[in-house]
Write a structure and sequence with these properties.
Elements: E1 4-6, H1 23-28, H2 32-36, H3 55-60, H4 63-70, H5 76-101, H6 106-118, H7 134-142, H8 155-178, H9 184-194, H10 200-208, H11 214-217, H12 220-240, H13 242-248, H14 255-263, H15 267-300, H16 304-330, E2 341-343
Length: 344
C-alpha cells in the first residue's frame, strides 16, 4: 500500500480580508467566558475540572481571529457576543466528538442532544433546566444575551437553527457507525444544518445592524443567494477539516468522501471535484449578488433606506466569507503537517 499526496486546487476568494479593529481587545478577554463556563481544564468543580480544552488547545484555535475576521464592521459588544457563540459551537463540536464520536456512543449522543433541546425552546421566558456540563452552561448563558430588542425577530429562527445543528450531529454519528456516506444530492442542504450555517445571516445582521428588506427576503433570488452563502462556509470547512474528520475521527460526513462515493471516482479525482464544487457555490453567490439582485431591487421598488440596508448587509456577508476562508486556510485547527490529501 503506497501513500501519495494529491495536489490541492485553490479556493477562490474575490473579497479581501478585513479585520475588526477591536481584535486586540477581544484577544485580551478571549479566555474569560470559556473559563467561566467550565470549558477549560481546571476551571470547574469536581468532574467538571476537566473541560473541553486545555488552555494551549483553546488558544491554538484562534477563535478571536475567526470572529474579528468574519465580522470586520461589528462594535465591540457585538463582536464579543458573536465570539462567545463561536466558542460555544466549537465546544459543542469538540465535546461531541470526544464523548460520542470517538466512543461510538449513539444512545449517549441522543440523550445529550435531547437535553440540549430543553435549552433551545423559543419562548422568551421559558424555564431552563439546571446545566450539568460546560456545553449546557454556555448555551444557557448565551440565550440570555442573543436576542436584544433589535434582534428579537431572530429568536425562533436562530434557536431552530441550533436544534438542527445538534440534531445533525446525531445523524452524522449514525452515518459513521453504519458506514453510510451521504449522497451528494442530499448533502449540501444537510451540511447547512450540521454547520449551523442558518445562524450566519444573524451574525451578519448583528455586526452590521442591517437587514435584508422584508419585501424581498423570501424571493427566489434572495433564497438562492443565501443558500450559496451558507454552502460555501460549510462545504469549505469539509475541505479544511478532511484530515481531522476522516483520518482521526473516522467520520464519513465529508464533501470529499461524498463526491467520491456518489460519483464512483477515486480520491485523486474527488479532491479537485470537491474544490471546484465549493468554488462554484461562491461564484453563484457572486453572480446573484452582482447580476440578479439589482434587477430584483428595481422591480421591488425598495426605497433608499432599504437599498442602503441591503448593501450594508451584503458587504457584511462578503466580509464574513472572506474571514472564514482566511481562518480555514491559516488556523492551526485546520492546517495539517503538509496540507495534503493522502491516497492509498
Amino acid at each position: 500500500m503506497t501513500v501519495r499526496a494529491v495536489e490541492l486546487p485553490r479556493l477562490w476568494m474575490p473579497h479581501p480580508l478585513r479585520v475588526n479593529p477591536h481584535l486586540p481587545d477581544l484577544r485580551g478577554e478571549s479566555e474569560t467566558w470559556a473559563r467561566e463556563m467550565g470549558m477549560l481544564d481546571g476551571h470547574g468543580d469536581g468532574p467538571e475540572r476537566r473541560g473541553v480544552w486545555g488552555p494551549s488547545a483553546f488558544h491554538a484555535m484562534t477563535v478571536d481571529q475567526l470572529t474579528a475576521w468574519t465580522l470586520p464592521d461589528a462594535s465591540f459588544a457585538a463582536l464579543r457576543l458573536n465570539h462567545r457563540f463561536n466558542i460555544w459551537t466549537l465546544a459543542w463540536d469538540d465535546h461531541f466528538a470526544a464523548a460520542f464520536k470517538q466512543t461510538g456512543d449513539l444512545p449517549g449522543a441522543r440523550a445529550f442532544t435531547t437535553r440540549l433541546h430543553a435549552f433551545l425552546r423559543p419562548e422568551p421566558d421559558v424555564r431552563l433546566p439546571e446545566p450539568v456540563n460546560a456545553v449546557e452552561r454556555g448555551l444557557a448563558d448565551l440565550r440570555r444575551h442573543l436576542f436584544p430588542p433589535e434582534l428579537a425577530h431572530w429568536r425562533h429562527d436562530f434557536l431552530r437553527a441550533l436544534v438542527r445543528y445538534v440534531d445533525a450531529g446525531v445523524e452524522e454519528l449514525a452515518n459513521s457507525l453504519s458506514g453510510r456516506v451521504p449522497h451528494l444530492i442530499d448533502y449540501a442542504p444537510f451540511r447547512r444544518e450540521s454547520f449551523a450555517a442558518y445562524t450566519a445571516p444573524y451574525s451578519v445582521e448583528l455586526a452590521t445592524g442591517a437587514r435584508i428588506p422584508e419585501r424581498i427576503r423570501h424571493d427566489r433570488t434572495v433564497r438562492a443567494l443565501l443558500d450559496a452563502f451558507m454552502d460555501f462556509m460549510g462545504l469549505a470547512n469539509d475541505l479544511a477539516s478532511y484530515e481531522r474528520e476522516v483520518h482521526e475521527e473516522n467520520d464519513v460526513n465529508n464533501l470529499v468522501l461524498v463526491v467520491g462515493t456518489s460519483l464512483g471516482i477515486p480520491l485523486h479525482e474527488a479532491v479537485p471535484a470537491a474544490f471546484h464544487l465549493v468554488n462554484a457555490r461562491l461564484r453563484e453567490f457572486e453572480h446573484l449578488r452582482r447580476n440578479e439582485l439589482p434587477p430584483l431591487v428595481r422591480r421591488s421598488g425598495l426605497d433608499r433606506d432599504e437599498r442602503a440596508g441591503l448593501e450594508t448587509w451584503l458587504r457584511g456577508a462578503c466580509g464574513f466569507l472572506s474571514g472564514i476562508h482566511a481562518w480555514y486556510t491559516g488556523a492551526p485547527r485546520y492546517v495539517s503537517g503538509n496540507g495534503a490529501f493522502p491516497e492509498t
